[in-house]
What does this fold into?
Amino acid sequence: MRKILKTGVIVILFAAITLPVCAGPGRDGGGSGEKITLTMSRWAGPHADDQKAVIRDYMAAHPNVNIVMDDTDNDNARQKQILSARSRVGTIDLFFVFNPWTDEYVRNGYLEPLDDHIKRTGLDMGIYNQAFIQQETFDGKLYAFPTRPEGMFMTFNGEQLRNDGKSIPKNTAELLELARFYKAKGTGIAMPARQGNASYEVYAALLYSAGGDFYDQNTGRITLDSEPAKFAINLYDQLTQNAITGSLTWHVDESNAAVREGKAPFGFTVPGLAMLDADPDQSVIVGKAVYAPVPGRNKVVTPLGFFGWAIAANSPHKAEAFDFLTWLVSPAIEKRQSLMNGQFSCVTANGNDSEIAAKYPFFGAVAESLQDIRTMPSSPNCVKMLERLMVGLSEVASTNVSPETVLARIQSEFASVDMRQ
It folds into this structure.
């Protein structure tokens, strides 16, 4: 069971497009035979546009319900959601909530608990990945349907590895050996080593897989002086030393492109980019790509972010909103959206669906990556710490400073700080 923690503001920018699914009547409907309007707030872009097409089918089958999508860039969506949630009667019924925001929304009473609605409808929650359900549960109550996880995994040019007599690495020792092998041949691993969130997500994967954490959950003490933390930073340093030239200026976009374009034999990627590997206009590894989780020292642990669909506590149409959500996140509709644009689902069966896998071969690796997940720490003090770590990892990658010296500085800076706050 998760406890409610304070959270810092995390901003992810997406293209700003605001197009309603359908204009409709106001929010006073709901009487016998009257049409009600449900407004949903989410970030904009191609996936939102695809979802509008899907939602039209729901409205066709439910003529008494009109769905309006208020899609905008992520920061504006958050601001609109909070403003609506603070009103006596909200203007938004459904929030697409980035997971690090959820504890703040719950703490402030912005979200409707879903448990009574689940009991009313008899919905089987066992169809969803329970690790994500746990992440959306606070003090024993579920507040959102998890969907669209995004975590890093790896793309390999399988043909090149076979020609060189190499195999997919199963642990961090093999990962480093493969990076060294290809660095000696003139390329190396494609790393998102630019100063940014991707760098500390790579570090987090190495840290968690070694059994470490950023802080002690019981005391709030920072633990970057631990053996797993030191192991992870030293491994990060060695990987960047054996990265293909250019990696120090790359985010995940460029890392994926380097493999996709045949410049690097393997590297880091995410679902939203891996789908490009099958595009013959953008990829030279069509039919050659092989995918796997980021190898760990002890086991695979994937740090990630994801979104959840939640109902506003001040919505005048909570029951109707819940009924719509159960349709939107149902296996069939989630699968339909996955086939449309490659978005991953928290419906367990969809991760191993043969039709989806045939179109998007990376789905199997993503499903394997999600067996043990961790979300990045999001308390205000942790956000500050991660910002310092981001700078420190850049220093490790681009200078000869001792990696453990960098960690020691951050450990000292936050030594007296409760990282839970």
Remarks:
- The longest strand covers residues 302-311.
- Residues 151-302+376-413 form a domain with the D-Maltodextrin-Binding Protein; domain 2 fold (CATH 3.40.190.10).
